[in-house]
Please model this.
Amino acid sequence: MIESGRAMDYYDDYSPYMEIDLMKMVDGFQDTNSGDKCPHLYRCPTCQNEEILFIKE
Model:
């Protein structure tokens, strides 16, 4: 799996430029704002399967 960055950066064209704490309030994950976790997108280079994994900030 190859790390492809924060999952929230793929929401729309302006997401990568928004404040991280603001995006955590609307990212759809319950504990990212209070749990010091950041959802990152991982992709398999062979099958193009995508998976979101949480990393510690």
Remarks:
- The chain has a mean pLDDT of 86.
